[in-house]
Design brief:
Helix content of chain B: 55-70%
Largest sheet of chain B: none
Helix content of chain A: 40-55%
Number of strands of chain B: 2
Number of domains of chain A: 2
Order of helices and strands of chain B: HEHEHHHHH
Radius of gyration of chain B: 23 Å
Shape of chain A: elongated
Structural class of chain A: alpha+beta
CATH class of the largest domain in chain A: Alpha Beta
Strand content of chain A: 25-35%
Oligomer: heterodimer
Radius of gyration of chain A: 23 Å
Number of helices of chain B: 7
């Protein structure tokens, strides 16, 4: 079977894990790959495929530690190409991530609210609004916003890092983004993390909306060395 | 009171047990996740557009102009004028004043969702 078809890999977990019945599993030693037989190497990133990939690793993660793979990994033979050559590293990574979850945090300003706050704090912006050119005004606002964002992001990371094992910062996507990133947190400290974020969000509520996602598999924190 | 607190909390902190939207999922499983060897990852069609779309240039003339427009659009007189009117005991344009005063109160309450705040904030008056 494995000779005639290719294998899509969602992720890797322990062979001892109780994986939902509808998922295909290929075991090798202590490891189990979550797989799907496919017939071609080229994949389309359709909405339902992306959501399905995320759903598979999420469902397994609710029962056991899982190393989520990036979307689009197709191999000839999952044992030969993945599990056997990387066995030691995969085992070590699963052990390291045991009991740890990822929580992603997004914080972004609500435009009107943050601009209003900036104008209330900085009278020179109000003056520019009355007398400056649009470019002067816009540039001054952008600068003030950037300074505010840096300070706020610093406060957010500082507070959340104290209840997390480690963190990963994502690139900002819009000028209203304050912070985007993920935290690796012990499962038993998720409540504390949530409480800390609640406190932060409350303190920044006048200008900022927060979003917390998780606990989810440690997408941000799975990395192997470059060479096999 | 418990209800009011919860309603307010949902405005500034939204929680999702798992990545809910396509954008969240894309970011997690296209950008992140384990890669065994770079060459193993197959060509995935149709993602370039999605990911490139999302990146924006933070400092640009366009951004400046947009901020300028947004700032000019803000009605800064709203809350202050209402405060003065109230101090002077003026009562004409009652509707408008009332709305603005509530606006000012909201500002004090750190600008949570406008309608839910004025409805749930039973301790305001």
């Amino acid at each position: 079977m494995s000779t005639s078809t290719l294998t899509y890999v969602y992720g890797v977990t322990w062979a001892s894990a109780q994986v939902p019945d509808d998922l295909d599993v290929v075991e090798h030693g202590a490891l189990a790959a979550l797989t799907l037989p496919v017939d071609r190497r080229q994949l389309r990133a359709r909405r339902r495929d992306l959501l399905h990939h995320a759903d598979v690793v999420q469902r397994v993660f609710e029962r056991a530690p899982v190393l989520p793979f990036q979307f689009g990994i197709v191999v000839d033979d999952v044992v030969e190409d993945v599990l056997a050559p990387r066995q030691d590293e995969l085992v070590r990574l699963l052990e390291e991530l045991d009991g740890l979850v990822e929580l992603t945090v997004r914080a972004s300003y609500r435009e009107d609210d943050v601009l209003r706050a900036l104008l209330a704090e900085q009278p020179q912006l109000v003056q520019l609004r009355e007398r400056g050119s649009p470019i002067q005004l816009g540039e001054a606002v952008a600068r003030a916003l950037a300074a505010r964002r840096d300070a706020d992001a610093h406060a957010i990371v500082g507070a959340l890092q104290s209840v997390a094992r480690t963190s990963a910062v994502d690139e900002l996507r819009t000028e209203l983004d304050v912070f985007r990133g993920a935290f690796l947190v012990e499962r038993k400290r998720v409540k504390r993390f949530d409480g800390e974020l609640e406190r932060l969000a409350r303190a920044h509520a006048a200008t900022t909306s927060f979003k917390l996602t998780g606990p989810i598999p440690p997408h941000h924190f799975v990395r192997l060395s470059e060479a096999a | 009171m418990a209800i009011a607190t919860q309603g307010t909390a949902s405005n500034y902190l939204q929680r999702a047990p798992s990545p809910s939207g396509l954008a969240d999922v894309i970011e997690l499983i296209l950008d992140k996740g384990l890669v065994i060897d770079a060459y193993i990852r197959v060509s995935v069609i149709g993602i370039e557009l999605i990911t490139i779309d999302a990146r924006i240039v933070i400092a640009s003339v366009d951004t400046y102009l947009r901020f300028a427009e947004a700032v000019n659009r803000l009605d800064l007189t709203q809350t202050e004028a209402a405060g003065l009117a109230e101090l002077r005991g003026e009562n004409k344009g009652k509707e408008e004043t009332k709305g603005a005063v509530e606006g000012a109160k909201e500002a004090f309450h750190r600008g949570n969702g406008k309608r839910s705040k004025s409805r749930s904030g039973g301790d305001d008056d």
